[in-house]
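agent> fetching stored inputs for the fe (ii) ion docking request
agent> found them:
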Amino acid sequence: MNQAREVLRCLARTVSGFTIYASGHPTRERALDELLHAVADLQEAAPGATFTFLDDEIVFGVHPLRGMGEWPWAERFSRVGVQRVEFVGPVDRDDLMHFVDDLARRLRRGRAESSEARVTRPTGIRYGLVHRDGLDDGDEEGGGLHLAPVDVDLVLEAETVRWLETELRGGGLLHLAEAEGVVFALLQAMHGGREMLLPLTRLKEFDQYTTAHSLNVSVLAMALAEQMGLGGAQVRSFGVSGLLHDLGKTRIPTEVLNKPGALSDAERTLIHSHTVEGAKLILEHDADLDLAAIVAYEHHRRTDGGGYPTFRIDRRCHDASDLVHVCDVYDALRTHRPYRDAWPHARVMNYIVEGGGGEFDPDVVRAFVDMMDRCTRADTRVDPDPGPAAPPPVDGDGEVNSRID
Ligand SMILES: [Fe+2]
Ligand SMILES: [Fe+2]
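agent> prediction call returned; pasting tokens
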């Protein structure tokens, strides 16, 4: 049922908003308002609605809820002791705020509260632990369901990425759950309608290049991975790798990253170090993110052996790095820099096609061209948006810049 899916989608966004923002922040308040509306719609359609999260399975009422893909929040909620959520009576904004606040707090702590199903205060929402008895005998909901079309609104996702970067700059943790949540939201934005969309972000909406760039590379990497026939889990891990590929830039002083004009050799060396630093950073925080670490390390390597960093032993890059490399260059060239305008879509595509077999893996280039052919019609932002006249902040990523200057 679409109202149930919408409640879960809004709930995930609101929990992310509560993790990042203090009370009163407009993004957080807006997410809460959307959740309130979604819950009201659901209660009208299905009074007494009940969700059960059993590891990664979602049960709505007594039926498994299909059409959410592999929704990562079900397992997370379940792990912190919120295995069931029941909307048993009227729910107001305060009820929801307390519920989401508690959920976000549990997720931050990473563990369940001590008690069984609990009510934090008299409210129309009950939630807590459940037992499996009687819950796994329902019929499956009918097949062929699709998610309702979603607005391609990535403000919260962009702010989440910005928050992740700020945390790391301040010496904080890499918040993997939030990064995965962003990737899931991007996938929903891509596949929410009948046609696949490329929800690409341009600078007129987000003032920080690296944030928009990270989101775009994640979207492009997932679309390209799908085009190349990869399955859901791999697509998501490519999405996380795309999202985190430039994470090492959080270790580089912003005055170097934002320096307009030519870089000195020392500055260029420092900027090139974002590959090695990114890989280290990712592995320090989560050893399981080895693919993201490899991509962070290799994404500026060319297929013909050029680029950086230098390998001690001549070897090929991981396929994921070759894939992210093309997406990275596409988005960089489509973006305004102080020393050149954004290139039109067609010009960037020519550049990528000509680079097949030299800078880029030819198979990846072919798939990228096919993917763009398939998506351009549906993507209103791929072309021909010239973007703002004023130069945006510079990312300082010297490799692409020097190649085309
Ligand atoms: Fe990079
Ligand atoms: Fe990049």
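agent> quick read of the result: The first strand starts at residue 50 and ends at 54.
agent> awaiting further instructions
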